[in-house]
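Action item from last week, closing it out:
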Amino acid sequence: MKRTQLAVVAVLAACLAGTDAAYAQQGLNVQLGYFSVRGEDGRVDHDVIAVNRQYLLFDVKDYSGFTLGGEWTFPVGEYLEGGVGVQFYQRTVPSVYADWVYDDGREIAQDVKLRNVPVTATIRILPFGRRSALQPYVGGGVGINVWRYSETGDFVDFTDGAIFRDAFVGSGTAVGPVGIFGIRGRVAPQFDIGFELRYQWAEGTLGQDFLDDRIDLGGFNALSVFRIRF
């Protein structure tokens, strides 16, 4: 973990070292979009969401949802741009047991919540240069994902069939790569709009309450980007 965090610092230091004096090309991005989680067949081994599908009724795609972010960008020469940003995603998915109900026929239900806050350091390649009115770009970087996963509600003890109410929580940080592809265009002297796709890879380890299962944090972000240059 320390080595990966040092790598983030190194990326930022390299970006800042190459930043030129044209501060008018810095930017503040506001990102609004949709986070699509990885499908059941592509998730990491022992992923808690995939494991839960064995006895709970829900769809993996239910965990996809709205995401909001912000990013500061700065020039690193004519054809490179650095960025430091943060995003927020949270989703609560209701579920019920597939094969068990209360004696009166009521469902045994719980709410499963996943929250992730990726903090990213990135580099973009601008093939047309940063002064172009239309700027496609591609890039990548590294993200530190601050995540929290919880299950709250009623549960079945498979050893004796007892039903009990409880809450189980796991949290931590997970470091992983980020890939970026996007395009933006100038619509005013200091204002751009664009569209960006991000793919993130990361996974965390849950505690003994979850039998040391893992949580796959990977997936696609489809983002509308509103950029103010200054």
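Closing note: The longest helix spans residues 2-18.
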